Amino acid sequence: MRQVLEGGEPFFRQGVKAACLLIHGFTATPKVMRGLGNALADQGHAVLGVRLFGHATSPNDLSRARWRDWLADAESGYHMLRGVHKDIVVIGFSQGGALALLLADLFPLRGVITMSTPYALPPDPRLKLLRPLLRPLSAVWRFAPKGKPVWHDAQALQEYQAYPVVPTRAVPEVDALFREMRGVLPSLRLPVLLIHSRQDPFIPPSDMESIYAALGSAEKEMVWVERSGHILPQDGERERVFEHVSEFIRSRVADRK
Amino acid sequence: MSEHASSRTDVHRMRSLVPGAEPFLFPGGEPRILLVHGFTGSPKEMRWLGERLQGAGFTVLGVRLFGHATKMADMLRARREDWLACLEDGYHILGGPKSRIVVAGLSMGGALSLVFGSRFPVAGVAAMSTPYELPAHPLVRWLRPLRGLIPLIGLFWRYASKVAIGWHDAEAASDHFEYPAYPIRSGLELDELLLEMRRGLPAISAPVLLMHARHDPAVPPAHMPAIFDDLGTNDKRMVWFEESGHVLTKDAQREQVFGEVADFVRRVGGGASWRRTADAVPGDERPGGGQG
Questions:
Q1: With contacts defined as CB-CB under 8 Å, which chain B residues touch A14?
Q2: Looking at the domain assignment, is residue A4 inside a domain?
Q3: pLDDT per residue over B59-87, tens digit each?
Q4: Which of A72, A109, B4, B62 could form a disulfide with B46 if both were Cys (CB 3.0 to 4.6 A apart)?
């Protein structure tokens, strides 16, 4: 009688190099970060892939989640890694990227990497219309269908683990989380790497440019990917994404001891 | 970084976790130990034990249960399945079934550890100050017949006052963090969890160490032998403490508690050898006695 979905468990690998905290996206599980985590661990990094509240169990649980629960889980991951290595880098995918940037506002991180991270809720006109009503509406309309997935690597799609629906009550929480993220961007000063696909069917590529422009960091960098969809750590160009992540950590973190 | 810190007057303004009450991970050797805090408590109450076990060479993870170490209202959204999921998280972070893992919990954390031990392969379970059923809080007696209505009642009557947990070490008490009341909705979750625990006790085959304060004012001492009797394992042992209250991991006799847990972990975590000693020390009840 397990609670956490098989394959969606959080993971940890010990290492001697800078510790990496990996944060998955909305409705997904730590599995989306596992390939990247293993690649970094193989290079000697300590890696921790956390599970955010309401994820990797049942969509009903996600209906009970508030954005601060997710931040609390990200903070928990940070505190666990503090006992492992003095240098901590946080890597977040999609909504996980917003949590990574919020963590950078709270704790002395060595760097943040975001992948496919939205600047705001996706610009769906229906969403814009419903946004103020979602909270009360979610009492009766509990789950919204997801759009058709657009992947470049069909085999990787089979590996992707996420709820098939979006709990409507969680959408205003995601909205609030991005608002918090936008609020801290100008005060951040740490090195930040942003990665986004020009082919992202879900989060417009211009969202990366918006985050980049708002970031207070002097050391910030944008990397474009061409042959992946939204799920950068698992889709077609994942190896290139992993290389950019390692290169960023090597040049911006490891060389500054 | 210093520039960042100095440019803000209140750098902690958005932290979700109560400072000092955060979870912790201390890497070390095998076996690995999962520490689980109690109802309305936080990882802080397990930290001293964790530091002591790290000093003994073990890997230690002190998990945070959902709704804890943030703000009390968060607990109202917590279900017992969320807490069990947090133990699973910790178990997998420690390496999962491939590793030798001992689970140790205080109070409700002990109950969660026992439930976990009845469902997952573990090297051992240590349960401290653990209730067999909901303690006789005055509310419990007359809320129980209304249990079906508790989610509803909990909507407008949210919190119940706490019972004394009986500290002997005042300094340790002042370092303790817990929410100031019991969320009523969560009491139902605890009640259901203890039911699951009682059902699971006969299925536990791993070695179990139980510890309780003889004068625990929060969970009556009789609860320990009740758990002991139902346990399926032959390798089980009870240890009594005379000079501590409910929070065994922090109160006056904590050093003896740490020693008992360390001895237990050393014995059950050592690969195949624990099986040979399994039948050698059943039900040793020496008060506060060591492993010898």
A1: 27
A2: no
A3: 999 999 999 999 999 999 999 999 999 99
A4: B62
Contact A10 B93 (CB under 8 A): yes
For chain B, which residues lie within 8 Å of any Cβ of chain A, measuring from their own Cβ? 1, 3-5, 7-8, 11-12, 14-17, 22-27, 61, 64, 66, 69-70, 74, 77, 79, 81-82, 84-85, 88-89, 92-96, 119
Q: Is residue B154 part of a domain?
A: yes
Q: Do B94 and A12 touch (CB under 8 A)?
A: yes
Q: Which residue of chain B has the CA closest to A103?
A: B15
Closest residue by Cα to residue A71 from A101, A48, A42, A93: A101
Select from A2, A71, A80 the Cβ nearest to the Cβ of B23: A80
Q: Is residue B291 part of a domain?
A: no
Domain that holds residue B87: 12-272
Q: What is the CATH number of the domain that holds A45?
A: 3.40.50.1820
The total of structural domains in chain A comes to 1
Has residue A107 got a pLDDT over 60?
yes
Q: Which residue of B lies nearest to A77 if distances are taken between CA atoms?
A: B23
Which ipTM score applies to this complex? Answer: 0.95
Q: Which of A61, A68, A189 is the closest to B3 by Cβ?
A: A189
Q: What is the mean pLDDT of chain B?
A: 88
Query: Which of B17, B26, B74 is closest, CB to CB, to A75?
Result: B17
In a domain, A237, yes or no: yes
pLDDT digits (tens, 9 = 90+) for A27-58: 999 999 999 999 999 999 999 999 999 999 99
The enclosing domain of B218 has a CATH number of 3.40.50.1820
Whether residue A78 is predicted with pLDDT greater than 60 in this model: the reply is yes
Q: Does A72 touch chain B (CB under 8 A)?
A: yes
How far away is chain B from the Cα of A190, in angstroms, using its nearest Cα? 7
- Please give the tally of structural domains in chain B: 1
